[in-house]
Amino acid sequence: MHKTIDEYGKVEEKETALVEKEEKSPSMKQKLTASFIRVDGKDAKLAMAHMYVAFIALLLGGLAGLLQVLVRSGEFTLPLGIKIGYYQVLTVHGILLALILTTFFIMGFQIASISRTAGAFTNVQRKIGWTGFWLMLVGTAAAAAMVLLNKATVLYTFYAPLKAHWIFYLGLALVVVGSWLLCIMQILKYYRWKKENKGQTSPLLTYMAVVNSILWITCSLGVAVEVLFQLLPWSLGLVERVDILLSRTLFWYFGHALVYFWLLPAYMAWYVVVPKVIGGHIFSDALARLSFILFLLFSFPVGIHHQLTEPGIEGFWKFVQVVLTFFVVIPSLMTAFSLFATFEMRGRELGGKGVLGWFKNLPWGDARFLVPFIGMVAFIPGGAGGIVNASYQMNQLVHNTIWVTGHFHLTVATAVALTFFGVAFWLIPHLTGRTLTPKLNYLGNVSGILWGIGMLIMSLSMHLAGLLGAPRRSEYSTYGGAEMAYDWIPYQIAQAVGGTILFIAILVIMYIVVQLIWFAPKGEEEFPVATVAPGAEKTPAILENFKIWGVILVALIVFAYTMPIIDIISNSPAGSKGFMPW
Amino acid sequence: MHIHKYEKWWLVFGCATLVAFLVILAIGAFHNGTHPNEGKITVDYENVDSIKPFDNPGVHKVEGKEWDYEVVLVASAFSYNPNEIEVPLGSVVKFYATTRDVIHGFEIAQTNINMMLEPGYVSEYVAEMNKAGEYLIVCNEYCGTGHTYMYGTLKVVDENAQNN
């Protein structure tokens, strides 16, 4: 602690700041006095490699987002110098933020989490990991080059029969294969730990990372089949036609589980990290594991709820998947309960009285808590909107309107993103051997609050415009002066205001991240990992029996998809040739 | 595995709400027949112009069916044919729509008429025109550079009001 302050050269000022902070947040005191278990240096290097890519993606993807909201407000056009179109910018935005930022951050975070809680990876495992990282990076560069050359303006969902250059698909395939290697690295480590610690319950963070790795491999199989067996041969000219509905169904088998792949690492932070940050305990180890297993199971037999308004899929099977979709309500309610129980217990421990008095005792000044907390709050309307989207008939009112964009900017782009930033604020200094100073902590809070305000404005106006019919993924247009389209314009201007605030938040975050990587004072930053409350019951061993869960998972997938896929293949029209209408 | 008493209540309450909610959706779908588009007819998308009914796009009055009008529509990058649809207030209309090229959307803004149009498939939907007005039809699936130039109009005309 003192060393940190010495390096600053402003001893008195900093000490006051720290004392204030200690009063506000008792956990800060522990943080500054304890010595911590650190992530192994070699593992830290691998994790950090992912962080660099993730945050470069954030900056560029965020810039693309800013351009989009400005153009769609109708008040701006892309400068003539930029020979790049709206949909190209949109493709960049979607790919960099939804696929690259998320995948790289998640892999980095999970590797660090496993190394921290189950010990260092072996050299072989680490080699597998580095191979995966480079494959993902090469793949990203290849796909990005094609997008920038305007050979792949197909958005991040790349729906056929829009046909991109084959290098684009190959790049995506490399990203997926690279991510598999990273997942295999994590799963290998987990089994080694189990072998070395027979009969013991695995560390919770490691377990959660492994569940998410299994989820990712299982879901990306769908998109891998689509890309490797359908789109790649088709774009290479080896086959002339592609089965459109099949490709979409494979995509959405992947695409919905993808959102849980984003969400579960945020839940890792919510269940295990945040309780430690506030000085509390894990509410229940067993329930946390159970909720992860339920998310794994109910991520898959549900993808068709993205295809409710499509021809060629029987209403009955759409409805079956709608019902299965709603099963995730159960682990979601469990999570909400656990989190607020942890908060309340800690708040009361600190002397909070009355029904809600405990609330003000939480460490509101600590960015590691406040920033993810804003994300949690956004997840409540995000989840509610999701219920509307998945509700079969109700989907027709909002499908492909900008309501949907508003929805996932609350879920992935706020709940998940803010949690990731809240994690980065301690994870990056932990990995680089620096510290989150009070000033950077303060800026972290500023970025979280800016994000919250910007997103409130942008997402709310997206939801409202969507209810009025405004389509998503569309350039500014007056639609021939139609009265209905005229009503959308004020909301589009509001989106530009919100989007601009969000971009400012991104700049603040980039400043913090750069500081934490290269300039913040050297020291030890804690990787917070909460433990279960004393006297908690032992976690049932069945939760670690992946054979059983694997069988149930496969059974659910087979049940939900066999009939629809047979229908699609046996009733399919002649496939489609490719189009490049951009 | 220990589950806290309040958590049990919370989960029971949550699950009961969920079941009630799903039952309502199911009644709507299977009793009242409010299914979104689930069109099952396939066509050769490269020759739609010569295949019935798409050889004659437009609004057609029909007799002896559960609906009064049929709207036959072909989408292509970047337009709808027909581009303007006019039907009387209170009529029941069946839409048949398909695409000649890439995937398009067929959304009538502020209504629940919203379908994906995919090459090789006929999208179908029956709707009652119970509110007069001029509705904007938009393509809500990205289909290329001219995506936002792809729109049309649905006019639901109150004939009584016009006569008066």
TrEMBL record, chain B:
Q: Does the keyword Ribonucleoprotein apply?
A: no
Q: Which InterPro entries match?
A: Ba3_CcO_II_C (IPR034214), CcO_II-like_C (IPR002429), Copper_CuA (IPR001505), Cupredoxin (IPR008972), NosZ/Cyto_c_oxidase_sub2 (IPR051403)
Its predominant location is: other
List the Pfam families hit by this protein, alphabetically: COX2 (PF00116)
Please list the residue ranges annotated as the Cytochrome oxidase subunit II copper A binding domain.
55-164
Q: Where are the transmembrane segments?
A: 9-30
What this protein is called in its record is Cytochrome aa3 subunit 2
Q: Which organism is it from?
A: Lysinibacillus odysseyi 34hs-1 = NBRC 100172
